[in-house]
Amino acid sequence: MIIVIAGAIGAILGSFATVVAYRLPKGQSFMTGRSRCPSCDHLITAAENIPVVSYMLQRGRCRHCGANIPARYPLVELATGVLFALSAWRFGASIEAILFAALFWVLVVLTVIDLELRLLPNRIVYPAFIFGWAGLVLAAAASGEPSRLAAAALGALIFGGFFLLIALLVPAGLGGGDVKLAFVLGSFVGYLGAPGLVLVAMFLSFLFGALVGLAVMLATGGNRKMKVPFGPFLALGTVVSILAGQGILDAYLGRL
Ligand SMILES: [Zn+2]
Fold this sequence. Notes:
Structural class: mainly alpha
Bound molecules: zinc ion
Largest sheet: none
Helix content: over 70%
Radius of gyration: 19 Å
Distance between the termini: 39 Å
Number of helices: 9
């Protein structure tokens, strides 16, 4: 039941994620002003704004002018809903479930922006670090495990420190946004289990990045100018590590 409710909340907030990802890089306010059709400027009504459902009922078209609505909208809503449901499944009814769902929401926004603009805005990454740590302190206090905060700090140092090192050694390799985001992600994953889960998250990020990078290189005939943003892989590696990292770690260590 709680998983279904979390999924529904996630789908609604996924709709808001699209708004933030679209407006924040342009410096527009996303707290005020209702959504409009980008083609005909028609105000989107509440009935047209039900996540995923409206898109399917309207067959992916604006009800007013018939313009195609990009599939990205329902996909982001669906992905956020699934991520919120998975957070509820992983953490149950707890502060952690809300905290990690919030992290997943931020990662959805960053993924959309990075794919579109090759950019991880400080205006999202800095607050994510500050509010993230406030949330981690709250969660550690509520669960009576203050030692987890030391693990979170260790995770930030490992994840962020490693990316900082790479950025210094290979300046063209990673963006500054990737390094800053790595400090945020290391804090969250470290809270759950440093250093093990942090290493899983880092390994998966590079694995996913390498696989997609290889696929893009093959598809474009080795055009090295085609740059793949790394933020989405950081996000994906971290999410998988948070949800299933312990199982992956146990399976790996069991085979040694
Ligand atoms: Zn329209």
